[in-house]
Design brief:
The chain has 225 residues and is α+β, with helices and mostly antiparallel strands. The protein is built from 4 helices and 8 strands.
Length: 225
């Protein structure tokens, strides 16, 4: 006689085991996909920053000076009497003047690009424009906030994306990220790390314009000396 108590299908325990396995499999697939998406976002931002560097050089060739930062968030540079409107210790800080340059207004995460320029290189009439003899302590890009290791000390301009986490509020990020949010001449560029890393979270993406690259482009275009 057949056992009528045997029923076809899965028991609750078997279903739970199957669901658990499916969750594990989905997790192993989704994590690499998320990593790939984030890497594509970083690559896209790096490409945009490279385009911005070329736009800065093009602007300098066309106008004889670099643009000033946007300090009122309208996309246009802010200039007063031939100089950048807001200057702290000879450095002008603010957002990238995307409208003035005719480029993208934000990174892939929808955040404005930060821009700093040695103000002598952004002067225009009635002020005196820069020349090959212009000398000044230029911007520095370091590997840590303490700047014990310097990538460059001859940058006339720095542009950066604050990354996915967009750490811009004082005290809300790691020391390295906060160094990219103050008004001095030092910036940090290093490998992206998560919040649980020994050095703390860092996802800023930084590019800079060396003074001699600017001089070379200006000389080649017949704008200097």
């Amino acid at each position: 006689m057949l056992n009528k108590n045997k029923e076809a299908g899965f028991s609750l325990i078997e279903l739970a085991v199957v669901m658990f396995i499916i969750v594990l499999l989905l997790g192993s697939v989704l994590i690499p996909l998320q990593t790939q998406v984030e890497q594509r976002q970083v690559s896209a931002t790096e490409k945009t920053l490279d385009d911005i560097r070329q736009a800065l050089l093009g602007f300098a060739v066309a106008n004889g000076h670099l643009p000033c930062p946007d300090t009122n968030n309208d996309g246009a540079e802010n200039v007063t009497s031939g100089q950048c409107t807001t200057i702290v210790s000879n450095i002008a800080h603010g957002n990238l003047p995307w409208q003035t340059l005719g480029i993208a207004d934000s990174d892939v995460w929808g955040h404005r690009f930060r821009y700093a320029v040695r103000e002598q290189y952004a002067r225009r009439a009635p002020s005196t424009l820069f020349s090959l003899s212009t000398t000044a302590p230029n911007l520095r890009v370091c590997t840590t906030a303490g700047c014990t290791s310097t990538l460059t000390s001859s940058a006339v301009a720095v542009v950066l994306s604050h990354g996915k986490n967009s750490t811009t509020a004082a005290g809300s990020g790691s020391a390295d990220e906060m160094e990219n949010n103050d008004s001095d001449r030092d910036f940090v560029s290093r490998v992206i790390t998560a919040a649980d890393a020994a050095a703390g979270e860092f996802d800023d993406i930084v590019i800079w314009l060396p003074v001699y690259v600017l001089f070379n482009r200006m000389v080649s275009a017949g704008k200097l000396p």
